[in-house]
Amino acid sequence: MMYRHLFSKPSKQAPGEGDSINAKLLLQAGFIHQELSGVYSWLPLGLRVLRKVENIIREELNNLGAQEVLLTALQPQENWEKTGRWNTVDVLFKLPSQTGKEYALGPTAEEIVTPLVGSFLQSYKDLPLAVYQIQTKFRDELRAKSGVLRGREFLMKDMYSFHETSADFDEYYAQVIDVYLKIFNRIGVEVKVTEASGGAFSNKISHEFQIITPAGEDQLIACAKCRFAQNTEVATLAVGEACPKCGGELIATKGVEAGNIFDLNTRFTDAFKIAVTTASGERVAPHMGCYGLGVSRLVGAIVEARHDERGMIWPDSVAPLTVHLVSLGSGEAWEPVLEKSKDIYRTLMASGIEPLWDDRSDVSAGEKLAAADLIGIPYRVVISPKSLAAGGVELKRRDSIESRIVSCDEILGLITTKSVGPSL
Amino acid sequence: MMYRHLFSKPSKQAPGEGDSINAKLLLQAGFIHQELSGVYSWLPLGLRVLRKVENIIREELNNLGAQEVLLTALQPQENWEKTGRWNTVDVLFKLPSQTGKEYALGPTAEEIVTPLVGSFLQSYKDLPLAVYQIQTKFRDELRAKSGVLRGREFLMKDMYSFHETSADFDEYYAQVIDVYLKIFNRIGVEVKVTEASGGAFSNKISHEFQIITPAGEDQLIACAKCRFAQNTEVATLAVGEACPKCGGELIATKGVEAGNIFDLNTRFTDAFKIAVTTASGERVAPHMGCYGLGVSRLVGAIVEARHDERGMIWPDSVAPLTVHLVSLGSGEAWEPVLEKSKDIYRTLMASGIEPLWDDRSDVSAGEKLAAADLIGIPYRVVISPKSLAAGGVELKRRDSIESRIVSCDEILGLITTKSVGPSL
């Protein structure tokens, strides 16, 4: 991708409107654009991150055997009446239509997925099963805040599982915890598996996957050593006590809830009168579980957790691109820099690593390097008269302060193997 | 993919609710599920088709140099006031919110994309540029009809281009016609490039890409030989006259509009006071073009154009899967069939061709073969005691009535090369 073709170039000035670090950095870098309070469009670089997060989630859920669907945002009022939620979910957008009917604009999908899956269920042999979607959700928040962490329109992965027995649900629930940890690990963020309220549908606790950051809205009691935490809403332990999992010290901290998983019991299958026949001929309502992951929120949480005063620092797995190629020089020194840059661009492209190449000749070196730091692509390769004189190009990882000169032949090996050595 | 794992299995009965061939077949085959009139969820097999159509469009638009974004569905009322369309677009959903503001729920994105792109534009050097998105759109249709051909919620690709001059726009417009023809060609449908009204923003004609089918809502005068057509709304030619492009005979027919492209002139850049500086220092409003493609509609149009009395007939490029593997047999003949089927399943998977494998032993041969015809995957491979006795498996293309026995070693070559010969 040529930097000069990018229509949404980073700005030199920090934006006025950002209400949080993630909003400020994502706006300034041209990753998102605000349309309304809490409503953001995704621009080319931001969309690339979003898609990479999506695809990691998709791969892991497909491996688990979950089936991807795409449910509707417009939902019938009568379904929400059946579950008794039409007038109780305060963030539910209600959409009048020319037909005289009102629709719900989906903040979640239990009211759609339960009768849908139910229409295909016959016997216990059809269970367990899980379906998921990655879909835009809508919440009529009185106050949107914290950039893409809490918006009125956002991208979410929601999964629903159906089981013959609660024991089978419990087993699946534990499996999903492992899959979620795998997803967060691949995305490059650390999470606390946090005990939280099970909500209105269950006496059991539920689990939230909290990314620790001062921007978080949730107050936690968390282990300083392991993944254990409790949301203060349900905390039974106190700061200074020993972690029940590992004995580490419990501390007070804040988190962003990137995912949550909980027990729906038969709350929704009862409401829609869904039942399957068991092996012994009984009719039972399937036990449901619900598993959310905030996709756009996760992008914001990554920024909150990984940035410095110069900009964002993307994990390799979800970075918009892997290499930021910066050509520097002027006058008669420009031509050899450009030639060498072209070689490297082609070599990278040929091996499937698409770089962002800044070959602008009308912009200062300082401005180009500042843009690279702001955008936060993992590898920066600078080609300049100085680097060529030193025998190659300057390679630097965004998450390191050190750089080194490497020969052009070396670059590919250093980037693809991600083994740039301890100094980078 | 194991057929028995698929939660949304085809039904033996045609559905009551389908209002068109595409709705009936997509519903019966478990590709979609109706939530409201004109509002359909996409189930695993249907979603696979949708994604393949999406990806073909994405590839071709990226090749053209267009930049992908994801704009918002929630749009500010004030933007629609600025363009004067808040009260004139009769299908515009207006969404009240707790904040007291009303939002538009996007049926199109000019009101978002124009100020967004405008905020990044400085001089003529930033032009031309084009951005596109593949996004769910909403239309408050008084009457939804024809299955996924005209719904209240649907997936659409919308692209917007920005130019310094109208001459530059004209050139780009012609390029997009070629790209669209490439897309339709890859998807496997024939279209008529149809002259239609330019709408309110231009005196020029616009072009619609019409798929010829009796289910179409649009009346056309079309050439029987080439791609030329006129929408009767603007027709200057009559049935029986000679085609101005090729001399072929003009006939009356019906089409589904799968795409349209048109000139927005400076209608929206004027409304939002967007201007760029030209080389001579003037400030001019960029000339815009708009290019739509109905993604979910296209899936319906393919079904309308390609089906028979037994079911759907997917083009190879967008079929949910490429091979439908059907294992038949019972009693002691079942074991060898199952073994051979496993071999073939593994061989196909190893070469990147994921089959849909129906290994159910509690269902009749007739039911399995009927399901295969209904789903319409391009290649059907039947493994049965009879085929094994004849030396292999029975290979049949969905679009042919003939089948033949091929050895197991042959299958891969016949499927990957798509050269099953004239008899298939």
Low-confidence stretches of chain A: 417-424
Query: If you average the pLDDT of chain A, what whole number results?
Result: 94
Query: What's the CATH superfamily of the largest domain in chain A, by name?
Result: Bira Bifunctional Protein, Domain 2
Strand order of the largest sheet of chain A: 9-10-13-11-12
Fold and architecture overview:
2 copies of one chain form a homodimer. Chain A is α+β, with helices and mostly antiparallel strands and 424 residues long. Chain A has 2 domains: 8-308, Bira Bifunctional Protein, Domain 2 (BirA Bifunctional Protein, domain 2), CATH 3.30.930; 321-416, Anticodon-binding domain (Rossmann fold, 3-Layer(aba) Sandwich), CATH 3.40.50.800. Chain A is 29% helix and 29% strand. Chain A contains 11 helices and 23 strands. The first copy, chain A, has helices at 21-28, 44-64, 77-82, 110-118, 166-187, 267-271, 295-305, 334-350, 365-375, 385-389, 408-416; strands at 32-36, 39-42, 67-68, 74-76, 93-96, 102-105, 129-138, 153-163, 191-196, 206-212, 218-223, 228-231, 250-265, 276-277, 283-284, 287-294, 307-308, 311-312, 323-327, 355-358, 379-383, 393-397, 403-406. In chain A, the strands form 6 sheets. Chain A has a 5-stranded mixed beta barrel with strand order 9-10-13-11-12. In chain A, strands 20-19-21-22-23 form a 5-stranded mixed beta sheet, sandwiched between helices. A 3-stranded antiparallel beta sheet of chain A has the order 4-6-5. In chain A, a hairpin with a 5-residue loop joins strand 22 (393-397) and strand 23 (403-406). In chain A, helix 1 packs across helix 7 and helix 2 (44-64) packs antiparallel against helix 5 (166-187). The longest helix of chain A is centred in the middle third of the chain and has 22 residues, at 166-187. Residues 417-424 of chain A have low confidence and may be disordered. Chains A and B meet through strand 1, strand 2, helix 2, strand 3 and strand 4 of A and strand 1, strand 2, helix 2, strand 3 and strand 4 of B.
